[in-house]
Amino acid sequence: MNLESPKVNVAKSAEYIFNELCDVKNFEKLMPDNIAKFEVIDENCFEFGLKGMPEIKLVKKEAIPNSKIVLGAASSKLPFTLTANITEVNDTTDVQLHFDGEFNAMMAMMIKGPISKFIETLAQNMGKL
Length: 129
Known about the structure:
single chain, 129 residues, alpha+beta, Alpha-D-Glucose-1,6-Bisphosphate, Chain A, domain 4, eight-stranded antiparallel sheet, 3 helices, globular
């Protein structure tokens, strides 16, 4: 299952956005209002929970300076990645999130709506960094 957030434009440099996203504690600023838990495990890992959803642990898998950050599920039960593509445009930066997961058809049908809304919220909140 592949999902994309809308592309958002942030009035910051690509370097700034990249550095903020590399610090996993800053993902708390991007979370939706219905967050029930946010805990930093170490400098590359955090766990969060939204009301009514299971808790998810994300680990930083890849970081390409000023252009891309890839987070992945720490558990192999639900394998997925969340990629932030960062593109500098003049004095601003475009950010788009991509969610890529391998789920059976039933699971994909159940989570597509909530995951789409979640990554859209994360993207819209990029201006809070």
